Amino acid sequence: TYLCLGKKKLLLVYVIVLLLAARTAVCPGRFWHMTVAVQGQSPCHIVLTQRTPAVTRSQPRSTQGPDVAYKVSKDAQLSAPTKQLYPGDAFPEDFSILATVKPKKGSQSFLLSMYNEQGIQQLGLEVGRSPVFLYEDQTGKPSPEDYPLFRGVNLADGKWHRVAISVHQQTITLILDCKKKINQKLLRSPNPIIDTKGIIVFGTRILDEEVFEGDIQQLMIVADHRAAYDYCEHYSPDCEVPVPDRPQNQDPNTEDDVSSVTGLWCPQWRKLSGAVRAPRPFPPARLPPAHHPAARPPAPEGKTPTGT
Known about the structure:
The protein has one domain (2-282): Jelly Rolls, CATH 2.60.120. The longest helix has 5 residues, at 231-235. The chain is mainly beta. A hairpin with a 2-residue loop joins strand 12 (161-168) and strand 13. Mean pLDDT is 68; it is low at 1-25, 28-53, 59-66 and 245-308. It starts with a strand and ends in a 43-residue tail after the last strand. The strands form 4 sheets. A 7-stranded antiparallel sheet has the order 5-6-16-8-12-13-14, with no helix packed on it. A 5-stranded antiparallel sheet has the order 7-15-9-10-11. A 3-stranded antiparallel sheet has the order 1-2-3, with no helix packed on it. It is built from 2 helices and 17 strands. Helices cover 3% and strands 29% of the residues. The protein is globular and about 45 Å long. Residues 240-260, 277-308 are annotated as: Disordered. This is Laminin G domain-containing protein. Keywords: Repeat, Signal. Residues 39-225 form the Thrombospondin-like N-terminal domain. Residues 93-224 form the Laminin G domain.
């Protein structure tokens, strides 16, 4: 299933985090979906689901439609091999990360973490007060003291936020709620590489005690740095604006109890209809040493990455 944005084709990889009852919503009448979008040759749908009460639907603001978000508790443990999201493809050099979230008020955690084959964190998006964007390419750049820090931003104020991150060359731009734009330097190598042989972790970092708690409606990685600037138009419009047409073959079940397993669905593979096949276990990540910068970045100017 492809979504055409202009003349670019973006491969939608659905990461559907479920389970138990209740509803929520940012806007009435919209379908919830959590996706990771990447450029690719064929449509592959990732279903990453765990039957657990740690992820539940939240209460809707309105009963007018099926717009749904999910409440994530501190007990949620969600991860997958990066290769499942990028089968045969390199991670894009320039990209956007798009999210619609409402973290628990006063919390500080990583919404998304990506590790390489050696268990070293390469990418991380923190949500909270003065959040850090963690990025480390194959040469170890930028150094931890140069991680972009967005001072004056508080994503954990108890409100819904549309967060759009654009990474282009050596610049990262945060677009908050479609209005506030903050540019920072991203001092990476001229030809940066992010390893796709490791794992992606949702809601925390390896070795971190802090975990994401709150509501989430959408999380996307788009292989186009310009997508962040179009987030509120093409991906998450204002509540009074009709949502753009999207593929709905992975819409969440409206029943109270929904479950599935980790699987990879591509046209050339056996179709996963009705009953899905059991997942293949993936090897545990090799943890970075406690002293490694990826284990915990140093505090830039008095701020710890997981503090307030």
